[in-house]
Amino acid sequence: MKPIHLIPLGGNGAGAAPGLDVLEHLAAALARIFRTPCRIRPDTFDLSFALDAGRNQYHSTAIIQKLERVVDPDVRVLGVTACDLYVPVLTFVFGEAQLEGACAVVSAARLHEEFYGMPRREDLLRQRLVKEAVHELGHTFGLRHCPDWRCVMASSHAVERLDVKGAEFCGKCRKTVFEDRYW
Ligand SMILES: [Zn+2]
Ligand SMILES: [Zn+2]
Question: Which CATH architecture has domain 4-178?
C-alpha cells in the first residue's frame, strides 16, 4: 500500500491548519489503521485560491485538484485544514475525496465542540478527525458509503453520526482496502 502524506493547509487569515499535536495523533492513527507509513509533509500551500468570499468557505473540489498537481504518484495524500469546506450543492462538507484516486481533504472546522457552542473537548476533536480522515481515505480505495452504521464508511454529515460510528472498517470494507490491487 502507498504511504500516506498529510499536508497541513491553512487559509488566508480565516483559519489555520490544525495544531501539530493533532496532526501527529492523526498520522499515528492512520499508520495503525492502514498499516502503512504516514508522515506530515513540511510543504504546504495557502487555500485562498479556493475561498468563496460570499460563503466564507473553501471549495473542497478545487483543493483536491490542487493536491493532485502537487502530489507524487506513489503516495496517497490527505490535506488537513481547520478552514470550513463546501461543495456548491451542500452547505458544508467535513471532507471530500477522489473515488479510487490518491487525494482527499478533511476539515476540523465543524469537528470542534466549540463550533456547536459546547465546551472544548480535545479528545472528541481528535477522534472525529481520525474517523473523518479514515472515511475520506476509504473513498480513495473505491469504497462507497457502507450500510453498517458502526463502520467508518457509514455516511455521516453530522457530528452525532460521527460519534456513534467507529474509526475502523467493517469486514467487508476492510477486505476492499487490503485486497491486493494497485494501491
Ligand atoms: Zn463519504
Ligand atoms: Zn463497511
Answer: 3-Layer(aba) Sandwich (3.40)
Cell match 504516514: residue? 38
DSSP 119: -
Domain parsing of the chain, residue ranges: 4-178
Q: How remote is the CA of residue 70 from the centroid of ligand 1, in Å? A: 23
Give the residue carrying C-alpha cell 500516506: 4
Tell if the pTM clears 0.90, that is, is over it.
Answer: yes
Q: Is the pLDDT of residue 12 over 60?
A: no
Residue 133 contacts residue 80 (beta carbons within 8 Å)? yes
Q: Looking at the annotation, which residues are catalytic?
A: 136
What ligand is nearest to the CA atom of residue 90?
1
Q: How close is the Cα of 31 to the center of ligand 1, in Å? A: 20
